[in-house]
Amino acid sequence: MKLHRREFAQLLLGGLGAAGLASVGMPAFAADAGTILREADAIRNPQTSFVVDVALANYDRGRVTEQTTVTTYSRPVGAQFQTLVHINSPAADRGKILLRNGNILWLYDPASKASVRISPRQRLLGNASNGDVVSSNLVGDYNAALNGEETIVDGDRQNRNCHKLQLTQASQSAPYSAIEFWVDTASNQPVKGKYFTQSGKLIKVAWYRKLKNQMGVSRPTEIVIADGFDPNKVTVMSMSGFRAKTIPESWFNKEWLPNFST
Amino acid sequence: MKRLFICSVAATLALALAQPVSADDFDLPPDLPAAPAQSLPPDVAPDGALAAPDTDPATTPGEFSAPPGVEFASAEDAAPSAAGRNATLVLEARAFANRDLDGNTTNALRFQAHYFGARDFGGRTGLIFNLRARTFIEENRSYRFADDFNVDVQELALRYALSPETSLQFGRINIRNGVASGFNPTDWFKDGSLVVTDSAAPADRRNERLGVVALTGTTTLGQTLMQIGYRPQIDADPGTVWTDRDNFGLGLDRTNPSDAWFVKVTPQIGDNLSFTANALLLDDDPGIGFELSGTLGDNLVLYSEMMAQKRLSIASEALGASEGSAAFRDGVGAGQGKDWHYQAALGLNWALSQKMVGARDISLTMEYHLNTAGLSSSQIDTLSGAQGADEAAAGAIHGIANRRQEPLARNQIFTRLAWNDFWGDSDLSLLGFYVPADGSGLAQLSFDVPVGDNGNFNLRAISSFGDSRSVYGANPTKTSVQMGMTYTF
Questions:
Q1: Subunit contact B54:A114, Cβ cutoff 8 A
Q2: Looking at domain A5-254, what is its CATH homologous superfamily?
Q3: Considering chain B, what is the average pLDDT of its residues?
Q4: Does residue B6 have a pLDDT over 90?
Q5: Which of A94, B119, B136, B408 has the maximal Cβ count within 10 Å?
Q6: Is A152 in Cβ contact with B363 (below 8 Å)?
């Protein structure tokens, strides 16, 4: 799947705090579902300041069409993260930085020292995109309800017994109307997600796989994302080198970006 | 008929076999070949050792049950980050066909190498560089190395981090301000900065300017980011390396013609609005301004940028004390002393919604530009009616506006349409400036086609319109058609 910049943008705003639209009529399940989702979030992303290297490969009909590498700097604030995404390759985008701080998105170009304010839907970079490179918690954006247990095929084609969570949009800024999210019953590891638009269309499917010990926790280090409109388009996002780093809040200010140093 | 049927079946089977294994209901993950290796650092555990072996998902605890102390083990930045490599080399060949107001066409070629980035020396010190070498070959003109080859030191500065939140920079720095796309009133140091002017797009021009020699400091006070800086006046003789010597002139007389002090303050005001206030003391003349931006929904960015500054109007600066006839000077408002002038850019950027354009990535920018130092409608009439010796004075006014990179007209409209992935991975953009007072303007069409991973082919066409004495119609280059090929390392 070609990296869809608008998806990236949609996901960027998906991380903001949400108003509580609790699942009426399912209070007990909702509480459990929230705990499960919170633990799954904590496995997907360390809930502290951290840095991770990300490689993205786009496939179209089984062939690699584009590759991008970025380093992501994330700092928790409230229920969500402030994030800097530093583009390492391709060469044409090297050194560009995407800054996300709440709804504030800036794209910084080191050649011109210019920062451009962008909207969530707007295309961002020449090659690099995909909202998943920006750290975000689902708990902040969606109300969760437990929808039973299912045995599904995971990203490594193994059967896994999972909680099935039904996530519903809790704020206008959440990028998806609904998400079906499967979490391993034994470990609360995220296994699979199906993401739907407001019109009810399936926009993408993600499998979380290749568990590795990163920052002391077993985390999925590869996400396979299939395009819901065109199954021939797939993005594989590989993460490595999770590491704790104290990141000052001032870094998440567009006026700091010319001073950014790795 | 039978043959047609067989061919159809064969083609369908071939197509089906070419698809990757992927069920439309997404019960199974796609079956993919491994991607070519990318330059990621090896997995490193928090203590700097290689990552622990893969663990059994069924028995691995989540974050909440991880052993205490493991996650925050000592070594921050233990992994060598690929982000540390931060230098880019861009080679470009560009062909021009420029037609002037008399209809004469001139062809030209330009080759350039652009090398920019940053290099860190240890943890605190780094070097910022932005260098360009270019040569220009024009039809019907003898090539002279002294005139037609230039090295531009656009930036060359040291940075030093006093702490993670306090940084100093000293040297030639491209100090850039502003949120607008077509005109940035708060971008103080754009005057006289351009090294090449082959594009009308402000985004391109930002890549093509000389920085100023300055000392800047950036720090945080509470949740407010503050920047202060000083640009010294540099006096140097013409013909020297500091000014305009052949091949290697640094142009410091252009970028540092006077002392300037400045301060910028960026407070944290929520998670949607972005605000920066600034104050400038330029050659003892004060200025104050701000920029503000925010989003509405997923699609719309609204922004404004304003600057009030004590200065000369464009006409007064261009004509000085005596150039032009008295009637012309009166007509364009020249001869007035310094006064407070106001510049503003108010605009929006609208990414068209999926309901309107489906999966297409199309955005529209609209801006209104105000420049009270520019010419009013009646002054534009005087400018376009210049006769005899006043024509040179009119040219001087155009020249000052160009040098300053600000609108000559008091009121101007800017618009830009960007359609990314217009055709395959190719991008299309169309931008225009329009002056309501005289109906003149400038339009630029640009089409970019990726070539391989690192190449790009650019086709650009620029045309000004309006009367030949109008604000944009007086541009000596009526049209320009360009083809450029870049390769980035």
A1: no
A2: Lipoprotein localisation LolA/LolB/LppX (2.50.20.10)
A3: 85
A4: no
A5: B408
A6: no
